[in-house]
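Treating backbone geometry as a discrete language has practical consequences that deserve illustration. No coordinates are needed to read the tokens, only the vocabulary itself. For completeness, the protein is quoted in full, as a sequence line and a line of structure tokens:
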Amino acid sequence: MAIRYYDRFSTGGRRNFGDDINPLLLGKLFHPNLVQGSKHCLIGIGTILNDETTAAVAHFERKIVFTSGIGYGTLKNPFDDSWDFVCVRGPGTARALGLPVTRGICDGAVLLADFYPPKPSTARQGTVFIPHVYSCWNSGQGLQKICRDLGLIYLCPDAPFENFIETVQSAARVITEAMHGAILADAMRTPWVPVGFTEHNHFKWQDWFDSIEKPFASHPVHPVFWDQTGPSMIGRIKWPYVQIKLGMAKKSLRTIMNEASPVLSSNSVLEARKQALRERVAYINATYGD
């Protein structure tokens, strides 16, 4: 596919929902000639507007940006006339790139709701906890134990795509460190609470909040801990301290569960953003799909 996204997890045999959205969703939105061609490259969903991307796609005749964002890596090399910034993730990205703020529409993942409609409130129950994929891999054993103790449904972003969507669709509330957990929850009309544990990029979260016209807020889960594996002496020495940290992190998350106010964009704002994205999809298909 001529789609540029962060695919290092998938090529390494692992998953990350926020990246895997690209071939699955963009393949549904865009003309096959575009996603399978060699002249044009679609720069897709994710925090991927940086020098690494510009170098990787330099050989394409045209680079078409669809809701990508900035926030990781350097951005020293200017974009030339071969780039068409149709829309970017949010107003923060638009301003940083010197684009009209109207180009900063929203993250394209909200269009998942066009293919996976939200469920009624009567079909929802429970609270889902979604860690960042790195937190899942490095601290997942402890986080799962905390979730079991607190009655939370644990959902790692490396879950199969359909399972991930179904779990968020069916939840009454989502607590998420993964930003695309929040974006999917908002699209599914599931109230969500943003948290930070081992990973939190303020700029991209602020970009997302601004795009849905909500004031930024995030709640830290602390302290950070790492899973201890293996029977080594170092592991045995550290184990009591890890248990103390687990107890403190559980208390922190319990407080968030009980006190944090969930976020949800208004129906009118979300629908306006989705309609604007649909119009940009139609433009891309008409301009580059032949």
Q: What stands out?
A: Confidence is low (pLDDT under 50) at residues 231-235. The radius of gyration is 20 Å. Strands lie at 3-4, 40-43, 46-47, 62-69, 83-88, 127-130, 153-154, 173-176, 192-196, 219-220.
